Amino acid sequence: METDQTLLDAARTMDKEALVKIFDLYSPALFKYALRLCSDPVAADHIVGDVFAKLLEQLSTGNGPTSNLRSYLYEMTYHRMIDEVRYSRRRAPLDVVDSLRGQAHPAFSSVEDQILFQQLGQALQNELTNDQRNVVVLRFLEDLSLRETAAVMGKTVDHVKVIQSRAIAALRRSLAYQGVRKSVPSLMVRNVSKAIGMGN
Fold first, then answer.
1. Nearest C-alpha neighbor of 55 from the set 87, 17, 8
2. How many Cβ atoms are within 10 Å of 183's Cβ, its own excluded?
3. What is the spatial distance between Cα 46 and Cα 40, in angstroms, rounded to a whole number?
4. Which end of the chain, N or C, is surrounded by fewer C-beta atoms within 10 Å?
5. Residue 108 and residue 118: Cα distance in Å, rounded?
6. Domain containing 19: what range?
7. What is the spatial distance between Cα 21 and Cα 137, in angstroms, rounded to a whole number?
8. Handedness of CA 150, 43, 65, 144 (dihedral sign)
9. How many other C-beta atoms can be found within 10 angstroms of the C-beta atom of residue 62?
10. How many other C-beta atoms can be found within 10 angstroms of the C-beta atom of residue 129?
11. Minimal CA–CA distance to 22: which of 49, 52, 46, 45?
12. Domain end: 38, 63, 88, which one?
C-alpha cells in the first residue's frame, strides 16, 4: 500500500491515479469531520468539495503541501468551516445529540449508559467553547495527534494541551453538576472516541 508521502509526491506531479486515491482515502473522514461541526450534510459536502478543489488548484501551480497531507487537509477543512460560519453569520455547533438521535450505540446497552451518553453529548454541545469543541473533535473523534491538531488550528502544541485540559475539566464539571458519579466523567472522556465516533 502506498504511503501518504508517496501519494502526495505523485499528486504533486498531477498524477490522476494518485489524486483519485487521495480523494477516496480522505474525503469520507473530512466529510464526517465537517458534518460533526455543521450538522448539515449538504454544507459538509460542499466544504469537502471546496477543500479538494483548492488542493488541486494549489498542486497545479506547484504549491500546496510537501508533507503531512492528512494534517494539511484537516487544516483546510477547519479554515473553510470558519469561513462558512463567518459568511453565514451563524454559529456552527457540534450537534452531537441531534446527529445521534434515534441511533443506538452498542457500547451503551443499559438505560443508565444511554443517559450518560446523552449527558456527555449535551455537555460537548453546551459547555465548551468553539476551540474546546474543535480540540475534542480533532483529538478524540478524528484521532489526530497533539501536533496535528495544533497545525490544523494554527496554535502551538502547548496551547492545544491547555485547551484540551480545560475542555476535559469543563466536561467533568458539567457531568458532576448533573449528578453523575465522580468516576464516570473520566471514563467517558477517555472513551469519547468510542462513545461519539459512531462506528469506527
1. 8
2. 8
3. 10
4. N
5. 11
6. 4-88
7. 25
8. positive
9. 7
10. 12
11. 52
12. 88
pLDDT per residue as tens digits for the range 22-38? 999 999 999 988 888 77
- Which cell goes with 59? 498542486
Rounded to an integer, what distance in angstroms lies between the CA atom of residue 172 and that of residue 26?
32
The whole model's pTM is what? Answer: 0.66
For residue 149, what is its C-alpha cell? Answer: 491538531
pLDDT at 55 over 60: yes
pLDDT tens-digit map of 140-199: 778 888 999 998 888 999 999 999 889 888 877 776 665 554 444 444 444 453 433 333
21 lies in the same domain as 100: no
Domain boundary residue, one of 88, 115, 130: 88
Q: Are 166 and 132 in contact (CB under 8 A)?
A: yes
Supply 54's cell numbers: 483548492
Let me know whether 153 and 79 are in one domain: no
